[in-house]
Specification:
By secondary structure, the chain is an alpha/beta fold. The protein is 38% helix and 14% strand. The chain has one domain (8-200): Glycoside hydrolase/deacetylase (TIM Barrel). The strands form two sheets. Strands 1, 2, 3, 6, 7 and 8 form a six-stranded parallel β-sheet that branches. A two-stranded parallel ribbon has the order 4-5.
Length: 212
């Protein structure tokens, strides 16, 4: 649970970041990290289209640089994009000026005021500086679709167990996630729909957070 749902003590370190959107009854925010790549992102887009759903994609700038057509397809299909650094850097492992420069470089390709730190790892100081230009979108549920130690059933079970009103849910449009994503994503979407959840994106910046 410490991975799938970030604990309160972690959330309290970043009071201006958004982990869950308060007051959003029967709504969730579906997000995808680490793309865009041709091996995964087009499949995700087709799957979302088949259900009439929009999502938010937090993109690695270097992937956008390498696959601009895939990036443009995400935009053309009406999804929201966010910055996930240029080189998928963990803020705890690099000096703050270098980290900020990497985010700025990614911005030259992604052009978004939304930011999500890779792995959720950054310092409170980095978060304060980033917050001057970006809205920081964290997560209420990590599906762990990337883990080779989990099955698609277990990824789906994470969605069923931890989703709640206003949850920001993280999947990945990555090569590592695809063996589980192909089954877990449609099952998750169908279950969420059966539970009466609506799907929202961060087209406008949320103004409140809930760190519970």
């Amino acid at each position: 649970m410490l991975i799938e749902r970030p604990p309160q003590i972690f959330r309290s370190l970043f009071p201006d970041a958004h982990f869950r959107i308060r007051g959003e009854e029967r709504c969730v925010y579906l997000t995808f990290d680490d793309g865009p790549i041709p091996e995964a992102t087009p499949w995700v887009l087709d799957m979302l289209d088949s259900y009439g759903i929009k999502a938010t994609f937090f993109m690695v700038g270097d992937n956008v640089r390498k696959y601009p057509d895939v990036y443009q397809e995400v935009v053309n299909r009406g999804h929201t994009v966010g910055n996930h650094t240029m080189h998928h850097l963990q803020g705890l492992k690099v000096k703050t000026p270098y980290y900020l420069d990497d985010i700025k470089e990614a911005d030259s390709y992604i052009h978004s005021r939304l930011f999500r730190p890779p792995h959720g790892f950054l310092t409170p100081k980095q978060a304060r500086l980033i917050r001057e230009q970006y809205t920081i979108i964290m997560y209420d549920l990590i599906t762990r679709d990337y883990s080779r130690h989990l099955t698609a059933d277990q990824v789906f079970d994470n969605v069923r167990r931890y989703t709640r009103d206003g949850s920001i849910i993280v999947f990945h449009d990555s090569i590592k996630s695809m063996p589980r994503l192909r089954e877990a994503l449609p099952r998750s979407i169908e279950w969420l729909m059966e539970q009466g959840y609506q799907f929202k994106t961060f087209d406008t910046h949320p103004s409140t957070t809930d760190t519970k």
